[in-house]
Write a structure and sequence with these properties.
single chain; alpha/beta; Rossmann fold; 212 residues; two-stranded antiparallel ribbon
């Protein structure tokens, strides 16, 4: 069954007026809450066949991008719910001799840490219940992150925990960031706040977007 094409989600007019008066203030926070709820619902109702097709296409795009970047350490993520699962890429990275890592939540309000995931190594739940690797801690060269929504300019809408923003701020070296999301979850006018950091690339089932 063909899925109905969805237009990018628009920020409501009242919120836009608030942003003009108070950019990055309470209006932006409230609008993110609204967008997050709407986009999470959109993600959950994407048909299973479209999710599967998108996963394969997005992973192929991601595989090509990572090959061009040629990093030594790539951090993937453990997908939850209807997020695009990129774990199948790990086998290719291992075969190419690259180091794969997974994020771990050690405590709420703190940056993520990344543990090496050796080929077919065991995983265990972190404090948030997400599957994490058990290898040594490492800093990735490329960080692949899931998203609830995105703007083509590079802004990412996450789940509101602030883990990735804190993590990027904590790195003592440049890290290439790649967001992965469904095309259907694009945000036309992103309610950016001062702490929001733009991604370097966004990968969807349709394309690779170079953000900066």
């Amino acid at each position: 069954m063909m899925a109905r094409k969805m237009a990018p989600v628009e920020t409501n007019q009242a919120a836009k007026a608030v942003f003009a008066l108070d950019p990055g203030g309470k209006g932006a926070k409230a609008e993110k809450v609204r967008l997050r709820a709407e986009l999470r619902h959109r993600m959950e109702v994407i048909p299973a066949d479209l999710r599967s097709t998108t996963r394969w296409k997005a992973v192929n795009h991601l595989r090509t991008l990572v090959a061009e970047l040629a990093p030594t350490v790539v951090a993937l993520y453990s997908a939850r719910g209807a997020e695009i699962d990129v774990s199948m890429l790990a086998a290719d990275l291992w075969a190419d001799g690259q180091t794969v890592a997974l994020p771990r939540v050690v405590q709420r309000g703190h940056p993520l840490v990344f543990n090496v995931w050796p080929p077919h190594g065991a995983l265990e739940p972190d404090v948030m219940g997400m599957l994490a690797a058990t290898g040594p801690e490492i800093v990735p060269a490329v960080l692949v992150v899931p998203m609830v929504g995105y703007a083509r300019s590079g802004y990412r809408l996450g789940y509101g925990g602030g883990f990735y923003d804190r993590t990027l701020a904590s790195f003592g070296q440049p890290v290439v960031t790649v967001g992965v999301c469904y095309t259907e979850l694009e945000i036309k006018d992103f309610p950016a706040e001062r702490h929001d950091r733009k991604l370097d690339y966004i990968v969807t089932g349709k394309e690779v977007i170079v953000c900066q």
